[in-house]
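User: For my dataset I need records formatted as: sequence, then structure tokens, nothing else. Please produce one.
Assistant:
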Amino acid sequence: MRILGINLPDEKRIEIALTALYGVGRSRAQSVLKEAGVDLGKKSKDLTPDEENAIRKAMETFKMEGDLKRQVASNIKRLKDIKAYRGVRHTRGLPSRGQRTKTNSRTRRGNARKTMGTGRKVEAKK
């Protein structure tokens, strides 16, 4: 099954397979399937064409994939343009939601900034 140019995994339950789309999590997938009248436990390869069309129709109401990525990028760009604190944190590649940075924040800052022991240089042996 293909939605928005993305192939959904055939062997997974449709509830899980829909989460392969950007902007669709478990709760949204469940609500879409409930609206379309499709069983949550059904595999995506076992869907009938009518069920596939019902799922596509239910998904059209949401902003997903490219549109959602563009919206998120434009929101971050707006914050950077107005020089908001959150925008500055995005620009510098630091956490933008108030987390501490003395320790942790390796995901945002990268692994390269690790400290070495106590920070003292090793003396050359005689």
